[in-house]
Amino acid sequence: MFHRARKRRKKGTYMKLKSASDLRTFVLTQADIDLHHAGKGHLVSSRKISQRELAERVGVHPSFINHLTAGRSKACTPLIADRIAEALGVDTSILFDEKTPSNTSEIPKRQTASLAMAG
């Protein structure tokens, strides 16, 4: 496995999964397993990786990968998004959109409260 220099991102940045179906093109799902058991395994790409194997490569719990592929969860940290993309051999931008924090959330809460009291 090759290692790329990770992109530095602004604090508070998170990654949003573009589409669960895009992720399912790289990861085995229950539908793929059912096809295989029905004797139609040739219809499933041999390049797909199991959810458990992907979770082990990325360093997350298998249920997290399952939540992403099922569409129950869409957000993760940039580090996890980079690891998922690297394990699948694709660019991070294919699977995830980068979401940066808004300007108001960058002000610490203590400053916000003191600004409100002064005004």
Overview of the molecule:
The chain is mainly alpha-helical. It is elongated and about 55 Å long. 18% of the residues are buried. The chain has a three-stranded antiparallel beta sheet. The model has no long low-confidence stretch (mean pLDDT 79). The longest helix has 11 residues, at 78-88. Helices cover 46% and strands 8% of the residues. The chain has one domain (14-118): lambda repressor-like DNA-binding domains (434 Repressor (Amino-terminal Domain)), CATH 1.10.260. It contains seven helices and three strands.
Gyration radius, rounded: 19 Å
Q: Give the integer mean of the pLDDT values.
A: 79
How many discrete structural domains?
1
How far is the N terminus from the C terminus? 56 Å
- CATH topology, what is it called? 434 Repressor (Amino-terminal Domain)
Strand content: 5-15%
According to DSSP, the number of beta strands is 3
CATH-derived architecture: Orthogonal Bundle
Oligomer: single chain
Identify the overall geometry: elongated
Spans with pLDDT under 50 lasting ≥5 residues? none
- Number of continuous helical runs: 7
- The CATH superfamily bears the name lambda repressor-like DNA-binding domains
Spatial order of the strands forming the largest sheet: 2-1-3
Order of helices and strands: EHHHHEHHEH
Main beta sheet: strand number and arrangement? Answer: 3 strands, antiparallel
Q: State the helicity in percent bands.
A: 40-55%
CATH class: Mainly Alpha
Judged by helices, strands and strand pairing, the structural class is mainly alpha
